[in-house]
Amino acid sequence: MNDLLRYCESHLDDMLAFVEALVRVESPSTDKAAVDRCGATLAEHLRVLGAAVDVIPVESRGNHIRARIGGDGRPVLILGHFDTVWPVGTIEQMPLRRDATRLAGPGTFDMKAGIGIAWMAMRALHATDTPHPPVVMLWTTDEEIGSGTSRAIIENEARHAAAVFVLEPALPGGALKTARKGCGEFELTIAGVAAHAGVDPGKGASAIHELADQITTIETLQDLDRGISVNVGVVLGGSRPNVVAAEARALIDVRAPTKADAEDVEAALRRLQPRRRGTRLTISGGFERPPLERTAAVGRLFSMARDVASSLGRELSEGSTGGGSDGNFTAALGVPTLDGLGPIGDGAHATHEHIEIGALAWRAALVAGLLREVGFGL
Fold it and tell me: Are 230 and 222 in contact (CB under 8 A)?
């Protein structure tokens, strides 16, 4: 383990240069040409590792990148994304800045430094002749907008894997993510009956008034003590102040820690009934990402990671988060999934986005050491 750490420490500048190269090639999810330029830079660096690199073509989004590296035993899937929330041109207003302790810039924390950590981990394994299982790296291009074109690819790769390592950012202090809530988005649409609000209000059925009543019911589904959050975040409706509203709708964000909780909340939303005569309800949407639950297998994988960290002279803790990642998909298949193996830092999706340079080497050694240990069996 110390050999792995020494290699990563002595080649920190290489890792930083790689991360900076990825950040400079901006890659917003909805700009295919930009994302593909970043993917070309990524693929070039992966080929230098000796990886067999496949560019998986996608018509509507950026092309996904898959890299295969040989080893012994069942493969491990290393998973992440290189799309960001930042539009092209952001780097001019929010330029890359490096000082003695931090590297700041759009996409550094979420999650191009995670790619750099995985890349350096593989370099360290090869340079030190450390045995490891076969590795499949899958870097996708639409995680920030729901993983619509990548989910099936992710799930197919995960089904063959002994474990999945997700290089998303760490929790504050470097903790790994052993649980993530499932993420759902629902739309409630109310159809009412229009009427003149001054002349014939009694002939109308207000969709807005009905929606207001429904929102009070929806609020009762939230149970923060159980980790269930329900938020009506967008409300639209009506046409003019003097018209009884014929239509209204609400967008609802739902987070749930377990599959059972997710099913309960979804069932309750679909059972909603109108309270006002003349109105009709339609509920659409669902859970886009299932929960990543802390199973016994996830617990064993974390214990292994904690032992590796200890051998590197570091303490490692675990935690949960309300946000989702592509690890939610792999965990739902029953594949042991460990998330948050990426950089320590702050500011995902914010103007102060940055990573801690001093943590990069040991995080790369952690991933390398964990690959070595998984090769001996979970």
Answer: yes
Q: What is the DSSP letter of 205?
A: B
pLDDT at 378 over 80: no
Half-sphere exposure of 323 (CA within 13 A, CB side): 15
Q: What are the two backbone dihedrals, phi and then psi, of residue 62, each rounded to the nearest 5 degrees?
A: -65, 155
Tell me, what's the pLDDT at 349? 96
Three-state DSSP class for 363?
helix
Q: 189-209 pLDDT, tens per residue?
A: 999 999 999 999 999 999 999
Question: What's the CA gap between 18 and 115, in Å, rounded?
Answer: 9
Domain-terminating residue out of 223, 257, 289:
289
CA 322 to CA 224: how far, in whole Å? 11
pLDDT over threshold 90, residue 232: yes
List CB contacts of 79: < 8 A, sequence separation 6 or more. 137, 138, 140, 154, 158, 164, 165, 166, 167, 326, 327, 330
Name residue 1's amino acid: M
CATH of the domain at 326: 3.40.630.10
Q: What does the radius of gyration of the chain's CA atoms come to, in whole angstroms?
A: 24
What 194-202 contacts at long range (C-beta under 8 Å, 24+ apart), as own/partner pairs, is: 194/239, 194/243, 194/244, 194/245, 194/246, 195/243, 195/244, 196/242, 196/243, 196/244, 197/241, 197/242, 197/243, 197/244, 198/242, 201/244
CA distance 369 to 378: 14
Q: Which residues contact 35 (CB under 8 A, 6 or more apart)?
A: 27, 28, 29, 61, 62, 63, 82, 83, 141
Q: Are residues 108 and 17 in the same domain?
A: yes
CB 75 within 8 A of CB 133: yes
CA pair distance 17, 103, nearest whole angstrom:
11
Provide the 8-state DSSP code for 101. S
Res 32 pLDDT > 80: yes
Whether 172 and 307 share a structural domain:
yes
Whole-angstrom Cα distance, residue 340 to residue 325? Answer: 10
**Residue 356's domain spans which residues?**
2-181+291-374
Give Dmax over CA atoms of the chain in angstroms.
Answer: 85
Q: How confident is the model at residue 377 (pLDDT cuts 50, 70, 90)?
A: confident
